[in-house]
């Protein structure tokens, strides 16, 4: 996994502290200052093999022994330039040869200066066989001078840090760098106050850094890392504490009106609200009624009915004389929300029209691809306040749209929005006031994970779904088994024959141009991560290029099972009108199969669609796959989803199977967490805060997160501006800058 490392502001630059070679090695990881380097944890430790006598060693075995140098011989290599250095060492009983192949003369000199006859050494390495001399040897061993005391023995057996490496950087260089840096550990900034550390039984930072990089025992490494983990959690929680403190000082419009639109709307709803919808509705109403901005994360599975909850809150804003905005991640979704909301509101949305209701408001759609005239009219309604409800994409935030009186912003599908979006929304309120923010997500996250990553939001969870949904059954289809693939298309044909519709999702638009899935409105799918134990490499089975929308549509047209089916396409590169037409055709039942990219991932609502086929499913992220299958089984017809893959059975396939079997978004969130680790918990576009977690594991460290939260909130409550905690204030600033380099802090 690629590491992103920030540079801490105000910390000592490594270029001034370290030798050039060491400073350069660190710099190739983006580590440029002492504070960052001493928090750059080893990826693991090697615990040396127990000390052995040379008599016991076996070829192929990892060994370490205390020896002394008997003789040193240097000869030149035959086939290429350089020397072979052969050093015979003995433990007083047996001898073994240490062999070095060295291309550069200065390295020969360096080894010779350290391998003087009579010197005591600890040697570590893997025993090999020298067929030339017919004796065992160790090629390129690790060795260091040995001091013949009890401390010396303990030192020889200490765990050694193993840092990540890059080409041409030796482990030795990385170790030398941190060794050199530890001399200055006393000058590190220490974000966690001493009182907190001692109450939690944690080491100070200089102690911890020493134990992480120069441990004497394995226990040391744990104690050292415990500080770094706690510190990371603590700084994060201090950020959340400060944000909440700022909110508590910021005025917001209190949205307290109870009618008339809310009552009129409830009366005409075609269904009963579920108990959960009512309860969460009340909780949101209470929060937006306060005169300080609230930030709520509303999580509920796909199809659990979040939109209605949001709409009721937006009507409360309008009733209270303010506006509400609903932001969607894509134009397709924004248009759909506009359609649904206009429909649900009926004449309540037609203010100023002949057939509008007396208390009606206006619902306006604002997207990037609107025609100028239409757009001008919309903007006019937004700035004048005539539009009570505005629906748009997040482009709306960047384009300097001015609201007359924005009281509430609802963000749909939060994993596409970052903290910076939320912050930007905050500035859109009337006369120095901040609007309330409700973020909706269908990718729920477990409680401590939420604390660690969106700890500045109040999390409300919608657990039930309206009974109407027929649900989805998911199958994994390994395409090497031709009969399965045939069966899959056969099932699609059966659905079509029964009057239903089918989605087919591809990872790309074309098959020729690589990476064309990415357009501003359509992020490329996030691939499934390699299994946790894989060392960052590819899984090795991804042989074929993913299939594209256009070629797939052509291929399907030729499949005998699908003869006569009407096939449409939808992808992010189509002009806005074409996209809209494709959606309308699908909605109206004029096409049977819609072949699309992940434009349809979030929220698209076609109640008559009952089959979802995802091709090259291993290319999609866990939450994407869940979102995709949530597109079917939304109406009265049971849905069926196929996760199709050309991978041979193995890790990726069993991960797809796990996803297929997960009952709901909550079970899936756990799987997602396990697979990805906390790294990008809430998806790629979520704030950088969690993307850049370095030591913290939101599952393993749940308790630490709770403790850090308690402590950080207490520190911030007592000293909101952190005047007595400059190191903490500095760490917060660095963290935020690292997470969102482009966002200005307010
Ligand atoms: P999501 O939480 O995925 O955004 P939606 O809000 O889109 O879910 O709701 C899914 C579907 O369920 C919509 O067609 C919506 O009108 C319908 N719905 C919402 N609440 C109820 C309810 N209480 N009873 C019946 N249908 C409902
Ligand atoms: Mg939705």
Q: What amount of the residues lies in strands?
A: 15-25%
- CATH domain fold name of the largest domain: Rossmann fold
The named CATH superfamily of the largest domain: P-loop containing nucleotide triphosphate hydrolases
Helical coverage, percent range: 25-40%
CATH top level of the largest domain is: Alpha Beta
Any idea how many domains? 4
Got a strand count? 21
Ligands in the model, by name, code or SMILES, are: adenosine-5'-diphosphate, magnesium ion
Q: Look at the helices and sheets and give the structural class.
A: alpha/beta
- How would you write the strand order of the largest sheet? 11-12-10-13-14-9-15
Distance between the termini: 32 Å
Poorly predicted residue ranges: 1-6, 515-542, 678-688, 741-746
Number of helices: 26
Q: Outline the biggest β-sheet.
A: 7 strands, parallel
**Residue-averaged pLDDT:** 84
User: Which architecture of the largest domain per CATH?
Assistant: 3-Layer(aba) Sandwich
Based on Cα principal axes, name the global outline: globular
Organism: Brachybacterium tyrofermentans
GO molecular function: helicase activity
Keywords: ATP-binding, DNA damage, DNA repair, DNA-binding, Helicase, Hydrolase, Nucleotide-binding
Protein name: Probable DNA 3'-5' helicase RecG
